[in-house]
């Protein structure tokens, strides 16, 4: 940004504002901050070039905060909005990553392949599967992505597919070791858990 005061908003993460775990403060009704706008002040304190943006939000999670935002770094056309910052943005960043992957698979396959991300092997993993799989069940095939999740899923998931393909049609491209075909336990084929050594 050079020597301009204010901070230009590079990206606004969308959320599910009905979900307490995925609140996206800048997308609530009446806020509508957009990428390209400038954050000019926080609770009346002007944002200056060279200052850490994080310092403006220390201790504000869950509390109402007044933001001065506008289309220009000099403050012309600015407005004040009230937001409630979240304690952790991981969920919003993760959701954005999943949605980008889903759009990429859809674009590259011409809409023929579904993309489903499974966060873990517990209830949230099956909830995510049901949400994404059934919304895309008319597709010819599916990429079931379990990268960076909390545990192995595929062996158990194979039996949950409504029209389970024969094991020889299941493929897993592993980070280490050889690819796997079939619903067997991947660990038996030399793929160590990427989170453990």
Describe the model.
18% of the residues lie in helices and 17% in strands. With 197 residues, it is of the alpha+beta class. The protein folds into two domains: 7-83, Roll (Pdz3 Domain), CATH 2.30.42; 90-189, 2-enoyl-CoA Hydratase, Chain A, domain 1. Helix 2 (123-135) links the parallel strand 6 (113-117) and strand 7 (141-145). The longest helix is centred in the middle third of the chain and has 19 residues, at 90-108. The chain is elongated. The two termini are 42 Å apart.
In short:
This protein has 197 residues and is α+β, with helices and mostly antiparallel strands.
What topology does this entry show?
Elements: E1 7-8, E2 38-42, E3 45-46, E4 65-70, E5 79-83, H1 90-108, E6 113-117, H2 123-135, E7 141-145, H3 154-157, E8 171-172, E9 180-181
Parallel strand pairs: 6-7
Antiparallel strand pairs: 1-2, 2-3, 2-4, 4-5, 8-9
Q: Characteristics of this structure?
A:
single chain, 18% helix, elongated, 9 strands, 2 domains, disordered C terminus, two-stranded parallel ribbon, alpha+beta, 197 residues, 2-enoyl-CoA Hydratase, Chain A, domain 1, Pdz3 Domain
Report the CATH topology name of the largest domain.
Answer: 2-enoyl-CoA Hydratase, Chain A, domain 1
Q: Which CATH-level-2 architecture of the largest domain?
A: Alpha-Beta Complex
Strand tally: 9
Q: Oligomeric state of the chains?
A: single chain
CATH top-level class of the largest domain: Alpha Beta
How many separate helices? 3
Query: What is the overall silhouette?
Result: elongated
Number of domains: 2
* Sheet of most strands: 5 strands, antiparallel
Helix/strand order, N-terminal first: EEEEEHEHEHEE
Uncertain spans: 182-197
Question: Can you say what the CATH homologous superfamily of the largest domain is?
Answer: 2-enoyl-CoA Hydratase, Chain A, domain 1
Name the average pLDDT: 80
Strand content: 15-25%
